[in-house]
Design goal:
Elements (H helix, E strand, L loop, with lengths): L9 E5 L3 H10 L5 E6 L12 E3 L5 H8 L4 E4 L6 H8 L8 H8 L1 H10 L7 E4 L2 H11 L3 E5 L9 E4 L4 H9 L8 E5 L5 E9 L5 E3 L3 E6 L2 E7 L5 H17 L4 E10 L2 E8 L9 H4 L4 H10 L11 E8 L6 H4 L4 E5 L9 E9 L2 H15 L2 H11 L1
Parallel strand pairs: 1-2, 1-4, 2-3
Antiparallel strand pairs: 5-8, 6-7, 6-8, 9-10, 9-11, 9-13, 11-12, 12-15, 13-14, 15-17, 16-17
Length: about 375
C-alpha cells in the first residue's frame, strides 16, 4: 500500500535576524519549512533555514521569494510596507501591511492609540525649525524629538532638556524632517516600563502572556521579568488595550505593546508588530512560546496556551557573549546564542532563568550575576523581586 506524503508548508520570513532564526527553530517541531529573505548573505537566520539574498524593494527578488512560499511574515518592522503590500498580492501576508505601515510611523501609531482611547503622552509632528519651537512651547520641557520612521533601540532620538538644547536637537535630526519625518513627544517621568506580548489568530481569537517588566540601558533592552509585579487590575488593563489595538488592526500574529507605568496608570509608548525581545522568556517560561504561537496564528492553526510556568527572567547579551557555564549550571538556566559575530551594540544572545518561586529566581540571578560580573544588570530585577 502506498501513501501520499503530507505536503509541508513553507513560511517565508522577510528579515533574517535572530527573530527569524527563533521562528525557524520553533517551527521545526510543527513540520514547517522556511525560506528567509534578507539583504545580506550572512544573516544569522541563514544558519537555520534557506536564505534568499535580495533587496526588499526588488520586485524580481520578491517574486522569486513569493513563488517558493505559502505564507509570508517578517521579523522586523522596518521592512518597507510597500514591499509587504506587493507581496500580499501574491501570497497571504501576516500581519497585514496596514498594521506594519502604522507601526512604522510614530505619528500614525500614537494617533491610533488616541483614537482607540489608549492613554498616550502628548506629541506633535515637526517638519521645520519653526514647528519644533512651537512643539516645544506646547508640550513643554523636557521632551524628546524622534524620527517618525526607522528608529529603534534608542536610535533616531534626541532628548531636549532645556531651551538651549533645541538648536542642537535640530542640528542632530533636522535633516531627517524631509526624509522620514520628525515628531516631538512629552518626556514621561515613569516609574517602570512594561510590555504585554499578545497573539491574535486568523479567526480573531486573542491571547496574551503575563505582563512583563523591562529594564533598558542606553535604549536597548537589558532584562525582562515575568510576570510583572504590577497589580492584577493593571495587568488586565494592559491586555485590554492590546486586544483593542489588535482588533482595530485586524491583526494576525504576535505583537508587543510597550507601556510606561506612571503613578499607577499606564501610558502607551509604542507597538512592535512582530515577535518581541521582551517575550523571549516565553520559550522556556510559558506553555507555548511567542514564536510558536506566531506561526500558529499566521497559518490559521489553533493558538497554544500562554499560561506561565513559575517566574522567569530574560537577560539580554549585547555586544559579546559572556561565558555560558554560569547559566547552564542553573537547574532552569537556558542559553541562546544567535550565531552573530560580536559587535558593539549588537544583540548577540540571551539567557533565561526560570524558577517555581520569585525567591528562587532571585537567588539564581544573584549567582549568575556574580559569576559573570553582571551584578549591575541583575540588580534591579533582584530588587524588584525582594
Amino acid at each position: 500500500m502506498t501513501t501520499t506524503p503530507f505536503p509541508s508548508t513553507t513560511v517565508g520570513i522577510l528579515g533574517g535576524g535572530q527573530l527569524a532564526r527563533m521562528l525557524a527553530l520553533a517551527g521545526a517541531p510543527l513540520g514547517l519549512r522556511f525560506l528567509v529573505m534578507d539583504t545580506v548573505g550572512d544573516a544569522c537566520a541563514g544558519q537555520c533555514a534557506p536564505l534568499l539574498v535580495g533587496d526588499y524593494t526588488d520586485e524580481n527578488a520578491l517574486a522569486e521569494f513569493a513563488g517558493k512560499i505559502d505564507v509570508a511574515t517578517f521579523d522586523f518592522e522596518n521592512v518597507p510596507a510597500q514591499s509587504a503590500e506587493w507581496l500580499a498580492g501574491k501570497v497571504p501576508v501576516y500581519p497585514n501591511p496596514r498594521a506594519l505601515a502604522i507601526a512604522q510611523d510614530r505619528f500614525a501609531e500614537k494617533s491610533l492609540f488616541r483614537a482607540l482611547e489608549i492613554p498616550v503622552g502628548e506629541f506633535a509632528v515637526v517638519n521645520s525649525r519653526e514647528e519644533l519651537d512651537a512643539a516645544v512651547a506646547k508640550i513643554g520641557l523636557p521632551c524628546i524629538m524622534k524620527t517618525r520612521r526607522l528608529g529603534y533601540d534608542g536610535k533616531g532620538q534626541f532628548r531636549i532638556k532645556t531651551q538651549a538644547d533645541v538648536d542642537t536637537a535640530w542640528q542632530a535630526l533636522g535633516a531627517q524632517a524631509d526624509k522620514v519625518g520628525l515628531i516631538v513627544e512629552a518626556f514621561i517621568p515613569f516609574q517602570r516600563e512594561v510590555s504585554v506580548v499578545a497573539v491574535r489568530g486568523r479567526d480573531g481569537e486573542f491571547r496574551a502572556w503575563p505582563l512583563t517588566e523591562n529594564w533598558h540601558v542606553d535604549g536597548v533592552l537589558s532584562a525582562s521579568l515575568a510576570p510583572s509585579r504590577e497589580d492584577v487590575g493593571l495587568a488586565m488593563t494592559a491586555q485590554a488595550y492590546a486586544q483593542r489595538l489588535a482588533d482595530a488592526l485586524d491583526y494576525v500574529g504576535v505583537f508587543a505593546l510597550e507601556m510606561f507605568v506612571r503613578d499607577g496608570a499606564l501610558l502607551a509608548n509604542e507597538m512592535a508588530p512582530r515577535v518581541h525581545n521582551s517575550g523571549h522568556w516565553t520559550i522556556e517560561g510559558a506553555e507555548t512560546s511567542q514564536f510558536e504561537n506566531h506561526l500558529r496564528a499566521v497559518l490559521g492553526l489553533p493558538l497554544g496556551s500562554t499560561h506561565m510556568r513559575g517566574s522567569a527572567c530574560m537577560l539580554n547579551w549585547i555586544g559579546e557573549l559572556p561565558a555560558r557555564n554560569a547559566v547552564l549550571e542553573e537547574a532552569a538556566g537556558h542559553w541562546h546564542d544567535y550565531g552573530k559575530p560580536p559587535r558593539a551594540g549588537r544583540k548577540v544572545g540571551h539567557a533565561t532563568l526560570r524558577a517555581d518561586s520569585e525567591a528562587e529566581l532571585a537567588e539564581a540571578l544573584q549567582r549568575v550575576g556574580a559569576a559573570l560580573g553582571r551584578e549591575a544588570q541583575v540588580a534591579p530585577v533582584i530588587e524588584r523581586l525582594s
